[in-house]
Amino acid sequence: MNSLLTDRAVSHPDRLAALDALAILDTPAEPGFDDVVRLATRLCSVPVALVSLVSRERQWFKARVGFDASETDLDRSVCKLALTAPDLLTIPDLAADPRTAGNPLVSGDPHIRFYAGAPLRLDGGLVIGSLCVIDTVPRPEGLTPEQADDLRALARQVVAQLDLRIALRTRNAALAAEVRLKGDVLRSESRYRSLFEKLDTGFCVIEMRFEDEDGGLRAVDYRFLEVNPAFAAQTGLADAAGCWMRDLAPDHEQHWFDLYGHVALTGEAVRLENGAASLDRWYDVQAFRVGAPEERHVAILFNDISDRRAAEVALRASDTRSRLAQEAGQVGTFELDVATDEIVVSAEYCRLHGLPVAPVYTLDAVTAPVLMADRATLSTAASRADGSAAEPIEYRIRRADDGALRWIARQWQPTRDERGTIVRWFGTVRDVTERHVAQESLRVSEERLSLAFEASGSLGWWDWDIPNDRLYAGEHFARMYGVDPALAVGGAPLTAFVDGIHPDDRGWVGERIQQALDTGGEFTEEYRLLAPDGTVTWVYARGRCYHDAAGRPLRFPGVVTDITEAKHAGLRQEALLKLGDHLRDLDTVADFVQAAAKTMAEVLGATRAGYGLVNPVDETIDIPTDWCAPTVGSLSGAHAFRDYGSYIDNLKRGEIVVIEDVTQDPRCQAMADMFVAIGVRSLIDVPVMERDRLVGVGFVHYARARSFRPEEIAFIRTVTDRVQVAVARVQAEQQRVLLNGELSHRLKNTLAMVQGIAGQTLRAVPDQAPVKAFTERLIALSRAHDVLMQDSWAAAPIRSIVEKVLALQTTLTRFRIAGPTLALAPQATLSLSLLLHELATNAIKYGALSVEGGIVHVAWRIEEGAERTVVLEWRERGGPPATAPTRRGFGARLIQTGLLGTRDTHLDYTPTGLDAEFRAPISQVVAS
Amino acid sequence: MTASSDRRPIVLLIENEPIQMMVLSDLIEEAGCDVVEATTTAKAIQILEHRGDIRVVVADLDVHGSVLGLQLAAMIRDRWPPVELILTGAVKPDLSSIPARGVFYDKPFDQGRLVQSIRSFVSANQ
């Protein structure tokens, strides 16, 4: 029981903790303790004394006399028994006491026999060991009472010594701590200074200045106490230390002062980002109070984040882009079992398809979102089995959850078993919608443009990358210029396209292109293209050359329109106008035909053109002249129709003959060689009919086979018709001239015969004057016919009539003739002639012309009014006074009747001579 | 043609129209001349070749058309230079094609002037 109690005391935690707190075990010997044990041996007359400290597993001797070992295990310890003793423990014979008889130190060497120990009891009552004295012989009387008291006193002294040790140690520790602390502060000071100097972050300590403001303090300025080198770099403020902020940056925002003031007053640390407009920067700022509150010192750490902020702004702008990029970058994986059609999918795969996240789906389930239109691109059981489905594909899905239309790109590879059979497909899917959207919009816009262009059928586009000499062009453009469209889409050198330009235009078009390159200006030209098959296309090209900033040609885009039709229509129109002028000016059939032939050949690009006059009876065609290309011989002369095939029959029926290839057309196939020999491979013959009879043929020849457009045939028909009309006009003119000549001839001969008959008949009449008057009137009438005949009896110039008729009587010097130009109608011509003849006859007989120096004013004018009227005046001057005739003969009556029998005649017989006026409506006088 | 002393100047008249022939013959005689009539160009040339006394030829150009008539006039001027030429016609020819000294009367014309022309030719040549 005792040993149990002893063991419990030994291992009492408080006791052990107190022992540990003493930190005395294994420490060197100390004179204070050594003195105690020496005193103890003397006082108690024993050879051995020990300060024994009992720990959990051993007893250690802080001081010892008469004992070699510094410690023993607890089996050899007697002191442990003292732990539980209320006072001094005395055992007179250790060998006799059952608690100690077995102790090796008792039974064995050094054979101790007597023990007395005083417990070492600390302030709290805890016993940590004992001060003991030992003898090797039993001492049945034990210690004397004085010896026992001394030992107790010495034990108390040991405890006191131990307390002192603790006090000392605490003091030393405090001292050591103080020393250590001093070193730390020194070290940290230098570390912070170094940091402070080397820091990229701006750092400063400021002292705030406040002013009283109603009910509080207002921060008005601060002064820099300390600034680090980075401060200047961050703020742009050099040598700031010692300066007031207001002096350095007068515009510095008040909010900064308020902020630091707040920190200085409250001790509250702040961190924020803010802009400093006066410094044109953004800062990340940390501010905290340092030192004593009343000092109002604030330390500030700050970073210039202007660049970062700019980057952030840019980042935000590209946020959408990057988000989309991320979305596009998402990859789902899957593994398809060929045998079961089960597909093991990743969560991302499910999300991409909008399917609930699950590890396994059936193939049908993952195929369901795919658009019907795109399912044809998907693999089939067969293509999966034989491996032909290995190509990557892209398809559209209607996402199962949100219905979004997405593009999915799928790549996969088969895995095979040992027999080579495909058992699984492993692959990835990616959402590539963004790329498709971009491509799609591009494609759509291109397609839209291209469609618009191509649909027009006559519009092509090009875009010339000048530095790389790559001309990109639409399909239509490429075809027009004879370049493979597939090549043009990828860009081809300019020369490839220039080759398509007509050789006659290539030179000047090249110059214009160069001009546009030099000036960076517009290019707007009409020119011809020549296809390898000889087809000429007119184009209207409109583009612009763009220069880069350095003024170098960069791009040259444009559009080109096929204006062949419009151009040809214009050319044809122009040609017809010109031809019309020619035909008016020319007056022989040969000239007409030449002009028409040239026109047709030029406009239609023919090698020969002409017009032939047909003799329908012997079926010959007489070609007065034709127009031929330099290499082609003329066909002028007479030709037998039948030599050239059977199409004469078509012509005779008034049908236009179009032969696109003489070697193919059944009507002339047999004599194709003959056609080819005269340079004719294709031709158009246009018949000219007159009262259902073939009278002429317009023809156009080509040295090569070609087809004809309806407009071209219509053009030939028009030209031919015009030639025919012109020819007919000339022929009619010639006939009319002939007829008029004959008519006039006969008329005048008749008049001469009338004259002769009258003369013969009236030969016996004594008074020949009336006969003479009759003859003269006849002659006057004849002269009027002469004048009329000059313009084919259609009209006569009034002055010619006046002069002709008056000249019959006397010289024209006796007349003053004046009046506007008028073309007289035939009837008016005859009437005027007879009227003037009678007036002149009278003037010679009785009036102004009967005396020397007398003259007659003959004038005519047009009088405006309700009805425009021609007024003819006859005023005689310088002759005798005029008197009205007493006799009303033929002459007087004719004068009274006036012009055209209107009887609108005013005769005034004045002393100075006759004044006469004759009026007639202009509509009757003037030729229409 | 009876006696050389009272022989009147001979005028060759070429005309194929009977009434005109009658009128012109009268006018020639009125001018104091004898008339030799021919109705064709060939006949007229024959007469000129066989007679040397023709002083004046009055020819109607309409007999064979003005061109033929003018050719005749030119031939007469060539072969018988002294013979005077008086031409008539319904169509006035190009005046430059009328031989030198020849005169032209556009039908119908003032008969008195024709008579005067004949007289002046005959008297000038006497």
UniProtKB/TrEMBL annotation, chain A:
GO molecular function: ATP binding; photoreceptor activity; protein histidine kinase activity
Residue ranges of domain PAC in the record: 391-444, 523-575
Pfam families, A to Z: GAF, HWE_HK, PAS_3, PAS_8
Coiled-coil ranges from the UniProt annotation: none
Catalyzed reactions per annotation: ATP + protein L-histidine = ADP + protein N-phospho-L-histidine
Keyword Cell inner membrane carried by entry: no
InterPro entries: GAF, GAF-like_dom_sf, HATPase_C_sf, PAC, PAS, PAS-assoc_C, PAS-like_dom_sf, PAS_fold_3
Keyword list, A-Z: ATP-binding, Chromophore, Flavoprotein, FMN, Kinase, Nucleotide-binding, Phosphoprotein, Photoreceptor protein, Receptor, Repeat, Sensory transduction, Transferase, Virulence
SUPFAM superfamilies given in the database record: GAF domain-like, PYP-like sensor domain (PAS domain)
Signal peptide limits: none
Descriptive protein name: Blue-light-activated histidine kinase
Source organism of this protein record: Methylobacterium phyllostachyos
Taxonomic placement: Bacteria, Pseudomonadati, Pseudomonadota, Alphaproteobacteria, Hyphomicrobiales
From TrEMBL, chain B:
Species classification: Bacteria, Pseudomonadati, Pseudomonadota, Alphaproteobacteria, Hyphomicrobiales
Boundaries of every Response regulatory domain copy: 10-122
InterPro entries registered for this protein in UniProt: Bact_response_regulator (IPR050595), CheY-like_superfamily (IPR011006), Sig_transdc_resp-reg_receiver (IPR001789)
Protein name: Response regulator receiver domain-containing protein
Species whose genome carries this gene: Methylobacterium phyllostachyos
Keyword annotations: Phosphoprotein, Transcription, Transcription regulation
One family name in Pfam for this protein: Response_reg
A single GO BP: phosphorelay signal transduction system
Key word Amino-acid biosynthesis present: no
